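The material for today's practical consists of a large collection of protein records. There is nothing in a record beyond a sequence line and a structure line. Backbone structure tokens are a discrete shorthand for how the chain folds in space. Nothing more is needed to start thinking about how sequence determines fold. As an example, a complete record with its sequence and its structure tokens follows.
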Amino acid sequence: MVVILVLLTFGIFLAIDYVRSRKQLETQVVAQGIAREAAPRMLPAMVAGFQVPENVRYHAGHTWALSESRDLVRVGMDDFASKLIGKIENITLPQRGRWVRQGQKIWTIFRDGKSVDMVSPIEGTVTDINEAVVQDPELARKDPYGEGWLLTVQAPDAKINFRNLLGGALARMWTEESALRLRKRMPVAMASALAQDGGVAVDDITEHLPELDWTTLTKEFFLS
């Protein structure tokens, strides 16, 4: 009889504990759901007025690489480059099937009768080019990480190549350093061009710097 009472008591305690645990779990789930709804959407990191998305890796020549699969990489110019270049009249992309090396000149930007080359962040075979950008080069400036991508590369050594690129805190520090170098080249009265509308750099920085040569300045930053 005593054994039965002990078992019943134990069972009651287990039932009570189960009910309490269930209520606590439901409360936690509701709280987590509210927190998720209240959390803002992730936006590209802004550094010194320039977008530096976390999901891409950067070459010091201001081009970026995004891994789409094991050895397929999407490539483009970064936000700093797009704003330094300003209005693009024409862009020459490599032919499909061409082999490019990391750090090698890969495309040419034209503006006001002048041109500047940019270097590849990755090594491999060009598999595709963005025909939309060929038709409308301004896409590369207006949406450099999205519709303005430039080409894709089949990169057999992508994993090794990515070790030579910048990401995370290093990419943010490098962008800050690039902005500081550019700011030092600008007259004090024009320094605000790097931070307008809540810290976003203007779309065409060099347009505000008539005394600086566009070709010399872009070649310096693009390592070309």
Summary: The first strand starts at residue 46 and ends at 47. Confidence is low (pLDDT under 50) at residues 1-43. The domain at 47-222 is CATH 2.40.50.100 (OB fold (Dihydrolipoamide Acetyltransferase, E2P)).
